[in-house]
From TrEMBL:
Official protein name in the record: Acyl-CoA dehydrogenase
Cofactor: FAD
Residue ranges of every copy of the Acyl-CoA dehydrogenase/oxidase N-terminal domain listed in the record: 23-136
Family named by the database record: Belongs to the acyl-CoA dehydrogenase family.
Recorded superkingdom: Bacteria
GO biological process: fatty acid beta-oxidation using acyl-CoA dehydrogenase; fatty-acyl-CoA biosynthetic process
InterPro entries (alphabetical): Acyl-CoA_Oxase/DH_mid-dom, Acyl-CoA_Oxase/DH_mid-dom_sf, AcylCo_DH-like_C, AcylCo_DH/oxidase_C, AcylCoA_DH/ox_N, AcylCoA_DH/ox_N_sf, AcylCoA_DH/oxidase_NM_dom_sf, Glutaryl-CoA_DH_mitochondrial
Organism: Allosaccharopolyspora coralli
Acyl-CoA dehydrogenase/oxidase C-terminal domain location: 243-389
Length: 397
């Protein structure tokens, strides 16, 4: 029996002792990502958010490349070849800083790079992946359209053959990294079904105007992709994959990162609320000493750290090769919804200061409104789980 002196002490930042389940290497990697955020993003992200810009996105990409987090869960081609849990831990730290930063990494690694790694030809992989892993080239992923989101099978962007070439026409919308990308992975209808194309962004007919007037993910580059008679060589198409299997496999990778990342945003809100309420005094004592405040803190802590356990469980399943898409939907639905609840509660606990960019809470809260609906709305994930539970599809009447 252990003695009283050897028992662990309760850590408010890790109340369930989940860090004990991480390897020393994972903890060290987390600290490296946290340091990058502290040095290159945290001091400036409030101002970027207020101005609606991420002016150092290319420099950030290179710093992230040096750290090895771009495509870090992929093997070869300059990628780090780390585990799914490693990647999740990094996503948690990135989004604890800002959802826009995690989106930059997620779109680069889990969408654009994963599409190339999983479905590209050897020539396509060799041409792009090493540069993308180093942050020297930024990628984007063109699937969502102005009128097609949850139902990508109805996309209007199309590609037709013209001799040995392909000619693409269409529009994509809400594309992270589009304006600063060197390469776009564009999904289009063809006579053979949906296919993926590797589109260098300097190709004539391609443009990516940045979307302005956003009130969420403001410290992130969000774009429209415009394809007007974009002519590509025959080898620009992914050689084997046809249909929605290609893009949906990539979305599943991105959703996995969101399970971890959204919980990082929630953790940041909890830590802000805990720190603030211990310092803010009303009626002669810190507001953390009042029962209602402590009840809120307890509920938030349970939500955040249950979310960590869920993310870690799904990460272990992914590393074991047993993670199912429906389980990713489970995690994305619950952790994002829970993170938004935590952010909203934290906002109230900070009172008027809760709407100030001096604190991260309002920024996380508005960002999570986007995270709730991108990579599959909460309704679509609920229906995915519902179909898995009942065996009855409800997507169409």
């Amino acid at each position: 029996m252990s003695s009283q002196s050897t028992r662990p002490t309760f850590d408010p930042h890790d109340p369930l002792g989940i860090d004990d389940l991480l390897s020393p290497e994972q903890v060290a990697m987390r600290e490296s990502v946290r340091a990058l955020c502290r040095d290159h993003v945290t001091p400036y992200v409030g101002e970027w958010f207020e101005k609606g810009e991420m002016p150092t996105v290319r420099e950030l990409a290179r710093e992230l490349g040096k750290l090895g987090v771009l495509g870090m869960h992929l093997d070869g081609y300059g990628c780090a070849g780390m585990s799914a849990v490693d990647y999740g831990v990094a996503c948690e730290e990135l989004e604890a800083c800002d959802s826009g930063l995690r989106s930059l990494v997620s779109v680069q690694g889990s969408l654009a790079m994963f599409a190339l790694w999983r479905w590209g030809s050897e020539e396509q992989k060799q041409q792009w992946l090493p540069h993308m892993a180093a942050g020297e080239a930024i990628g984007c992923f063109g699937l969502t359209e102005p009128d097609q989101g949850s139902d990508p099978s109805s996309m209007r962007t199309h590609a037709r053959r013209d001799g040995d070439d392909w000619v693409l026409n269409g529009r994509k919308m809400w594309i992270t990294n589009g304006t600063v990308a060197s390469v776009a992975i564009v999904w289009a209808q063809t006579e053979d079904g949906v296919r993926g194309f590797v589109v260098p962004t300097d190709t004539p007919g391609f443009s990516a105007p940045e979307i302005k007037q956003k009130l969420s993910l403001r410290a992130s580059v969000t774009s429209e992709l415009v394809l007007d008679d974009v002519r590509l060589p025959a080898d620009a198409v992914f050689p084997e994959v046809t249909g929605l299997k290609g893009p949906l496999s990539c979305l599943n990778e991105a959703r996995y990162g969101i399970v971890w990342g959204s919980n990082g945003a929630a953790r940041s809100c909890l830590e802000s609320a805990l720190s603030y309420t211990k310092e803010r005094e009303q009626f002669g004592k810190p507001i953390a000493g009042f029962q209602l405040t402590q009840s809120k803190i307890a509920d938030m802590a349970v939500r955040v750290h249950n979310g960590r356990l869920l993310a870690l469980h799904l990460g272990n399943r992914k590393d074991a090769g047993t993670l199912l898409p429906q389980q990713v939907s489970f995690g994305k639905l619950d952790n994002v919804r829970g993170a938004l609840e935590v952010a909203r509660t934290a906002r109230t606990m900070l009172g008027a200061n809760g709407i100030s960019l001096e604190y991260p809470v309002i920024r996380h809260m508005t960002n999570l409104e986007s995270v709730l609906t991108y990579e599959g709305t909460s309704e679509m994930h609920a229906l995915t789980i519902g179909q898995a539970m009942t065996g009855i599809p409800a997507f169409r009447g």
